[in-house]
Amino acid sequence: MSSILPNPDLFVAMYVRHEAVLSSQIEGTQSTLEDVLEYELDERGAKRAKDDAEEVVNYIAAMNHGLKRLETLPLSLRLLREIHSKLMEGVRGSERSPGEFRTSQNWIGPHNCTLKTATFVPPPPHEMEAALSHLEKFLHAPGDLPTLIVCGLAHAQFETIHPFLDGNGRVGRLLIPLLLCERRILERPLLYLSVYLKAHRAEYYDRLTAVRTAGDWEGWLRFFLRGVVEVSAASTNTARSILKLREASRQKLSSNAQAVRLLDHLFEYPLLSVRAAEQFLACSYVTAATAIEQLEQAGLLRETTGQKRNRLYRYDPYLALFEQHGLGTQERDGEGRPAER
Questions:
Q1: Within 10 Å of residue 145's Cβ, how many Cβ atoms?
Q2: What is the pTM of this model?
Q3: What are the entry keywords (predicted)?
């Protein structure tokens, strides 16, 4: 589907944000898609969930860094450390050795659990190093296994090794699209499993636990592959909807070239201010405001602040395509959410 989109690179940013928000929400982050868009539009003006928004923005940076580095570096332990460094830079957990594998024991379990009451204890550092070496060799030479099986096995094994003091879940989920892009299964990172894993969070953790305690790799792989099927279908439908929306929107704006240009910009940044439009169009404030007004009159933009100054406009029809996949208000996790220590 990405091959038939008029400019797929315009839409990749939204898919990456989609994954970043959901993957971070699995770990308890409260930021929504709109929080992140507001933060990106004006870091100084982002009032809601600023810390959480920074974590999601870091996830986006880590993904983009990994994709760029794959042009010259294979998916390796070195690259995973680089990705982790980007992920943890300047946010909660940044004091916990970003970009470095742990040298102390960690564990997984309910909030405030101890090592003795943990649900799972990953290998100690000396065994972790050997396990990571085996994982890297597997990534480089998986034999004749299908790539999706490699992705499922690698993700489960990475999460079991838990090589960082924090951020293991997010790095492990980043590993999946990076593997698919490295092996040219995907030309662009438009397939993400976090929407599926978030919707089936309890089973996600149960399946990983069953691998560790009972060696039930088949159960995990069935769960993983079912997710690939569901998310692939959803991504394809979203791409079709984007194409239809773009054509319908352009027809409403055919008389204003600046508004049409601004429309394409909205597919990458669907939250907009007049100043941002002025900068993108390289035009006067009045011209930018006129283009926004036409988009608003066409029913494509909605002003969200109710203010006379510092107004924000939202491309509702486009954001709705992503919000229907669980990107609305995020509920807080309960006591049973696995936590890293």
A1: 12
A2: 0.84
A3: ATP-binding, Nucleotide-binding
Q: Are 274 and 37 in contact (CB under 8 A)?
A: no
Domains of the chain, CATH where assigned: 11-96+113-235 (1.10.3290.10), 253-323 (1.10.10.10)
Ligand-binding site membership of 204 (annotated): yes
337 pLDDT higher than 50: no
- Residue 34, marked binder: no
Among 155, 162, 200, 265, the active-site one is: 162
Closest by Cα among 310, 269, 321 to 47: 310
Output the CA torsion sign for 326, 169, 333, 60: negative
- For 250-268, the DSSP string reads HHHTTT-HHHHHHHHHHTT
CA nearest neighbour of 128 among 164, 166, 171: 164
Residue 49 tokens read as 């969930």
Distance CA 136, CA 131 (A): 9
17 is in an annotated binding site: no
- Outline where 120-191 has alpha helix (H): 125-140, 147-161, 168-182
Residues found in the chain? 341
- Mind listing the pLDDT tens digit for each residue in 158-207? 999 999 999 999 999 999 999 999 999 988 887 778 889 989 999 999 99
Helix H or strand E segment including 272: strand 271-272
Say how far apart CA 185 and CA 179 lie, in whole Å: 9
Count the alpha carbons within 13 Å of 82 in the hemisphere toward its beta carbon: 16
Pull the structure tokens for residue 6.
């008029």
Is 126 considered catalytic here?
A: no
Tell me: the pLDDT tens digits for 205-218?
A: 999 999 999 999 99
240 is in an annotated binding site: no
Please count the helices (runs of H) and the strands (runs of E) in the chain.
14, 5
pLDDT digits (tens, 9 = 90+) for 20-65: 888 888 877 777 888 888 888 875 444 444 667 888 889 889 999 9
Secondary structure (3-state) at 101: coil
The 8-class DSSP code of residue 326 comes to T
